[in-house]
Amino acid sequence: HAQFLPALLQNISLDIHSLTVPAEVIIIDDGSSDNSAAVINTWAEQEASRFKIACHYQENRGLTVTLNQLI
Question: I need a surface site. Which of 12, 26, 42, 64 has the fewest CB within 10 A?
């Protein structure tokens, strides 16, 4: 799914830049086997000075476990 990430991340950046309050983006990579982590890391480095970004990488543990991590 890495091919979809650049457009998604660009839209997130545009949306956040239009906010008038501080924002934070939390990304959890649940064991992707493509280059998603590299795409996310590049974007996070470029945007790090504009808003808070938290990236977490883990082995595939399933949707429920991953969503519970966000709580």
Answer: 64
Please write the tens of the pLDDT for every residue from 20-33: 888 899 999 988 99
Q: Produce one character per residue of 31-69: b if its CB has 16 or more CB atoms within 10 Å, e if not.
A: eeeeebeebbbebeeebeeeeebeeeeeeeeeeeebeee
Does the pTM exceed 0.85? no
Chain centroid to CA 37: 9
Are 35 and 42 spatial neighbours (Cβ–Cβ below 8 Å)? no
10 with 50: CB under 8 angstroms? no
